[in-house]
Design goal:
It is a single chain. The longest helix is centred in the last third of the chain and has 40 residues. This protein has one domain: Amino acid/polyamine transporter I (Up-down Bundle). It is globular, with a radius of gyration of 26 Å. Helices cover 67% and strands 0% of the residues. By secondary structure, it is an all-alpha fold. The N terminus is likely disordered.
């Protein structure tokens, strides 16, 4: 479009083109559409491109004030995002009053948890060099892919990708996106909930033993019964309606995670090391079995960086305007969160392996602390540490279960065209909690489950974001950006296959060992 002469710039079109406003969410927030690439690069005249003519340069000129006000209005109104009315009924997008603080709480709660406790198990199979190297590479890699997801949340003007599956459908296509992403994201949510039930129930059992003491005469609950207690508490807390409503729980989970992570590695390092400790990587007689162990260990490292399946969901809870896009507070909160995540994961992995070496039990550093130092550390400190772990597991269960709750309610609302009643919503969450409980009872192999989870869900964190960046942003072919993302994506898919095989082998091996011990 040809540029208009300067003398015509003061004329205002009678009917400027304005996009259709979106449906307001209960929080009353709207999301203006960011400008397209063409609008940024083009010099064509638009209603928002008013520039004051030179003869209107005095600041107090009334016409100039009118033009400036009109420009700001058109910028706000002309970039509105069209939202699905159904989003106002679903837990993730029901409230859009989030901010950078909420983003930090949610990311920290999702990023630090029980997976840090099994990191020293991976070091027992990898050793010092490969353990530290793999942990560092995984941290930098996942931080880059998190930045990609934050940028792609509003990559297309007029559209917010509120869920990981929606972004995958936009990149890979409607059907292929669902096939590639739906299973690993649902498996990550359900698998994490199952693992949380395992570690939470075991920790509650240890907490009871510490508080009760050796002279306790009461009949203690069995491990399965402790799993049931933890599941019941999680179901009660899961009745909070949406993602923003659990911000307080996420804050509790973040604080408890930082506290108990620091307490565990400090207590482990401050005590005398076992006399038979060794730092040689564990191995089996056959080279193939040792390779499977290494693959499972790398899967544990990959699983320690979870939470990318929640990044878009967390960002969807924030208001977004043309001048103040949601990616700014989201990335600000994520940077703070992942600074503290690094301060938790690296010390607990390195300090735990230094304190216990290859004597580390398969359950992780928490079990090692109780087994080796339960008589050296005061019962009060041990009990506080275990109680903090329970609080963190209860908080993490909520945020990782939210995508599953959202999927259940999306299926219901799409069929009935009405929001879920409180009884239907409660029924979905009770059903999900007890399904996770039964899976946990059937597969009580925490370290093996962590390796398998890390392998199967690795593309969600390390591979798919790189491919989606190429397909949506379309960097110049054969450029550094193009090659870099293709290489990272292909490596992520290859590692996923290898780590999954290692996790399956480890689970089968643990199952055979359990069957052998029970038979004897």
């Amino acid at each position: 479009m040809e540029e208009r002469p300067e003398t015509e710039l003061i004329s205002i079109p009678a009917t400027p083109r304005v996009s259709t406003p979106e449906i307001l969410t209960p929080s009353g927030q709207r999301s203006p559409r960011p400008p397209s690439k063409e609008a940024k690069s083009s010099n064509a005249w638009t209603p928002t491109s008013f520039k004051s003519p030179r003869f209107l340069s005095p600041i107090g000129t009334p016409m100039k004030r009118v033009l400036i006000n009109m420009k700001g209005y058109l910028e706000d109104v002309g970039h509105l995002t069209k939202l699905n009315p159904q989003d106002a009924w679903l837990p993730i997008t029901e409230s859009r009053n989030g901010n950078a603080h909420y983003a930090a709480f949610h990311n920290l709660n999702a990023g630090v948890g029980f997976q840090a406790l099994v990191l020293p198990v991976a070091f027992a199979y990898l050793g010092w060099s490969w353990g530290i190297l793999s942990l560092t590479i995984a941290y930098v890699w996942q931080l880059y892919t998190l930045w990609i997801l934050v940028q792609l949340h509003e990559a297309v003007p007029g559209k917010r990708y509120n869920r990981y599956v929606e972004l995958a459908q936009a990149a890979f296509g409607e059907r292929l996106g669902v096939w590639l992403v739906l299973f690993p994201t649902v498996y990550l949510s359900a698998g994490t909930a199952t693992a949380l039930i395992l570690i939470g129930g075991e920790t509650m059992k240890l907490f009871f033993q510490i508080v009760c003491g050796p002279t306790c005469t009461s009949n203690p609950l069995t491990t399965v019964e402790w799993y049931l207690v933890f599941t019941s508490l999680s179901i009660v807390l899961s009745q909070l309606p949406n993602l923003n409503s659990i911000a307080g729980l996420s804050l509790i989970g973040a604080v408890t995670a930082i506290t108990y992570s620091t307490m565990i590695w400090v207590l482990s390092v401050s005590q005398q090391r076992p006399p038979s400790i060794s730092y040689e990587p564990l191995s089996l007689p056959s080279s193939s079995s040792s390779a499977f162990l290494v693959m499972n260990a790398l899967g544990i490292v990959a699983f320690s960086f979870r939470g990318h399946n929640l990044a878009l969901e967390i960002q969807a809870t924030m208001p977004s305007t043309f001048k103040h896009p949601a990616r700014v507070p989201m990335w600000r909160g994520a940077k703070v969160a992942y600074f503290f995540i690094a301060m938790c994961l690296f010390p607990i992995a390195i300090g735990g392996f230094w304190a216990y070496g290859n004597l580390m039990p398969s359950g992780g550093i928490l079990g090692a602390l109780y087994a080796f130092h339960s008589h050296d550390i005061s019962r009060g400190i041990l009990a506080l540490t275990f109680l903090l772990v329970v609080f963190n597991c209860l908080s993490s269960f909520q945020i990782y279960s939210m995508p599953a709750f959202d999927s259940f309610e999306a299926g219901y609302t799409s069929r009935t065209n009405r929001p879920c009643s409180i009884w239907v919503r409660s029924g979905f969450r009770v059903f999900y909690g007890f399904i996770s409980f039964f899976i946990g009872v059937a597969l009580p192999f925490l370290s093996s489950l962590a390796g398998l989870l890390g392998g199967l869900t690795l593309p969600v964190t390390f591979a798919y974001p790189c491919f989606m960046w190429i397909l949506i942003k379309q960097p110049t072919k054969y450029s550094f950006n193009w090659y870099f993302n293709w290489i990272l994506g292909c490596l992520g898919v290859g590692f996923s296959l290898a780590f999954s095989i290692g996790g399956i082998w480890s689970m089968v091996n643990d199952g055979l060992k359990l069957k052998f011990f029970n038979s004897n």
